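[job 4471] stage=fold_predict status=RUNNING
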Amino acid sequence: MQTEISSRMLYATKQHSVRRPEQHQSALERFLALPEGAACQLIAGELVMSPAPIPLHQAVILELSIQMALFVKKENAGRVFTSPIDVRLNERNIFQPDILFISKEKAALIGERMIEGPPDLVAEVLSPSSAYHDLRTKFRAYEQAGVQEYWIVDPERKSVEVFVNSGGKFQLRQEAEGEGAAQSVLLEGLSVDLADIFP
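[job 4471] inference complete, writing structure tokens
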């Protein structure tokens, strides 16, 4: 029995092993060598592994993305994607936003492997493991890359902050909390009741 278990473990290890990166490889090269579906982002030139999100986090992403996707489809405005999907902002930053919107005008950014450039709109749902990067590092990177609208969604506070990029800087346009509604500036007419996205 012990031999059988050991054999299974060895087989599983071989099936899921990743070739160790060479020391001379850059962080970008190591990132691009990762297997499909790896829970890893390239943040400020560093590989950052992400633990699996908790159920609440995923529930909020699902509800918000459904509302955004239905609106975008109705308006024939573009495409909505949810994580995990890689977004290359530059050679030092390849993120996996929770939700993103690509307008029809920017459809060429949708590459075979990843989104090759800044989305029009990004929404990040805060969690204990991601809050620092979402509020600081990624905030600045999205801002500098030219993301037009950034939503910060906080399940604990049941709040949504909507930032709009003006002159290369994010400006807080709206903060909704509790039973309010979050409204997009970019997607005019999109209004999301917080009671619908927070269980």
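[job 4471] summary: The CA atoms of residues 14 and 191 lie 49 Å apart.
[job 4471] exit 0
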